[in-house]
Design brief:
33% helix; 19% strand; 103 residues; 3-stranded mixed sheet; globular; alpha+beta
């Protein structure tokens, strides 16, 4: 399974996002090459209007369930409504450096 493509497809189909970025950050961690284990997902969608952060994350986690049962170890979620995204200036948070392993 190509996890990045799977996540992009599942999220796009379900949420019709105005903005979606799925980044494989596995290379930043102490995992074998090609592990597809750590991802950062930034989603901007009208479907998040009126939903608390936990509900947004549960929605993405449900869409990613197949990947979470397999190769994905970590899924960093950044979920915004269009107005929240605009207020941020259209920029997602940067990922912190890995605290585990040797990388």
């Amino acid at each position: 399974m190509q996890v990045k493509a799977f996540l992009e497809s599942a999220i796009t189909e379900a949420l019709a996002p105005q903005y979606l970025e799925v980044v494989d950050e596995s290379f930043m961690h102490n995992v074998p090459d090609g592990a597809q284990s750590h991802f950062k997902v930034t989603v901007v969608s009208d479907t998040f209007d009126g939903k608390r952060l936990i509900a947004r994350h549960r929605e993405i986690n449900a869409l990613a369930d197949e990947a979470l049962q397999g190769p994905v170890h970590a899924l960093a979620l950044h979920t915004y409504t269009p107005s929240e995204w605009e207020a941020r200036g259209g920029e997602a948070l940067s990922s912190p450096k890995c605290l585990g392993g040797s990388k």
